[in-house]
Each structure stands twice: as structure tokens, then as C-alpha cells.
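User: Hi! I'm working on a homework problem where we have to compare a predicted structure to a textbook description. Could you give me the structure for the chain below?
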Amino acid sequence: MRGLMLASLDGDAAAYRVLLADLTRYLRPWFARRLSAAHVSHAEDLVQETLLAVHSRRMTYDRSRPFTAWLHAIAHHKFVDHVRRHAIRPTVPLDDDAPIFASDDSAHAADRRDVEAVLATVPDRTADLIRQTKLEGASVAEAAARHGMTETAAKVSIHRGLKSLMGRFAGGGK
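Assistant: Happy to help. Predicted C-alpha cells:
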């Protein structure tokens, strides 16, 4: 193959065609041996990529060096590029990122303590109903069912608890 490469570099188009045909026959099994069974169908693509690289970089071939070493370097780089392109990388859809990224609630810790201190001033069941409906987003029906009471009774309890809190804290220093 070295002789064909040298002749093609000197302008012999027929030698270049023979060289490319020989390289194709040589590279197919070379790549097939290195590819896994799942990717053996990619051998032809790798052969074509390597032939294109040989063609575009043929002027960089040092005539005093072995041709097969130069060819193997190109083929090896094409193979490594292929492995990198097809490497299995774990991905997580952005919709499912909640378990991966912890939320930083440290800025709201003081707010939570204040709310809990305020809710401690009303009866426990009323505080729990307010917490569930106003802070956690539960419906009045869900909160009432958790406490074994009617929806109407839960609404009244929440209303009275909020009214009591407003009376204590809305005065602004009374």
C-alpha cells in the first residue's frame, strides 16, 4: 500500500483508485474486529470516514515513514471518535430533576419558624387545618377528611382561626 500511496502522491490517479479500494478491503475487517456486536453495522461508516480523512490529509503523509502506521493512526482516531459519540451517558429528563437537585430552603427557615410560632397561638386542630389548606395546598375537603370532620366544620374552624390571628397580629402594636 505504501507504493500505491507514493504513486498517488506523485499524481497517478489509477494508483490512487487502487489504493482506496485496497484500503476499503483492509479497513472493513479492522473496524469490525474492534466494534461490539451492537455497533458492527457502523464499520462501513467508519471506513468511509477514514477514507475521507486519508484523502483530505494525504499531503501530510511523510514519505520516509511506514504508510500503515500513518493509516492506523487515522483509523484509530476515527474509532475513538465513534466510541465517544456512541458512549452510553446517563441522562435525566428535566421533568424528573426533583430528586437530583435539592431545593435550598434555608432562606425561608426563619419565615417557617415565625409561621409556626403564630400557629402555636391557636388550637392544634385549627392550626393543622390552616397549615394544610393555606400552606400545603390541600383542599378543605381533604383537610376535613384527615381530621374526621365535615367540610363545613373545617371551613368554620379555619375562618375562626384566621380571624383570631388577624385580631392578634394585624393591629401593628396595639
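For your comparison, note the following. The chain has a mean pLDDT of 84. The two ends are 99 Å apart (CA to CA). Good luck with the assignment!
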